[in-house]
Design a protein that fits this description.
alpha+beta, single chain, Nonspecific Lipid-transfer Protein, Chain A, disordered N terminus, 2 domains, 5-stranded mixed β-sheet
């Protein structure tokens, strides 16, 4: 469902007031809709980040895919997969930045988040609004360091959908190490 269709659907729901520029989804705090210019600048910013860090991503296999969504209140209910799936279902259709490796380069585009299965992701970063704003305002050469700090601070949640072996085969080792995430453990 597109953002416009989602806004129209929920605006027509009794008890939900339509506010221009805000997406109202039952069970999720209201979130401002990102203006098209902001969305394009996010795509351009992240494309510049990946281009400037090309050596870090050079080993990614074609089809390696990551996503970034900005969603305040994305909190799985409990530690079970069902709670995580429920949180993802509530966010279906929200804008996502998709990062996909093709021919030795990571391309960035904006697409709707299709849930964990539909998005075909290896890794997903879910940023709160503070983190999204900080990442967008951070210079290109410092964005990945900011991402590392925001993950440690808890402003960015990190989800992995592949096994360690699959991630290694896809070439993620250097990137995950750069974020300070234990990838293969202390003993290699």
């Amino acid at each position: 469902m597109t953002e416009i269709a989602a806004r129209a659907k929920f605006a027509a729901t009794p008890g939900i007031a339509a506010t221009p520029g805000v997406v109202a989804t039952p069970g999720i705090p209201a979130m401002p809709v990102q203006a098209a210019a902001d969305a394009q600048s996010d795509v351009a910013h992240w494309q510049a980040v990946f281009d400037a860090s090309a050596a870090l991503f050079a080993e990614l296999a074609d089809g390696a895919r990551m996503g970034l969504i900005a969603q305040p209140g994305f909190a799985p209910a409990g530690r079970r997969l069902a709670g995580l799936d429920a949180a993802a279902a509530k966010c279906a259709g929200l804008p996502m930045l998709a990062f996909e490796a093709t021919a030795g380069r990571v391309g960035v585009r904006r697409e709707p988040f299709a849930g964990f299965g539909g998005a075909r992701l290896d890794l997903l970063f879910v940023a709160d609004e503070e983190a999204r704003a900080e990442l967008a305002a951070t210079p290109v050469d410092a964005t990945l360091r900011a991402m590392k700090r925001l993950i440690r601070r808890g402003n960015v949640m990190f989800f992995v959908f592949r096994t360690r072996h699959e991630l290694q085969e896809a070439g993620y080792e250097d990137f995950l190490d750069s974020l300070g995430l234990a990838f293969l453990g202390a003993c290699r």
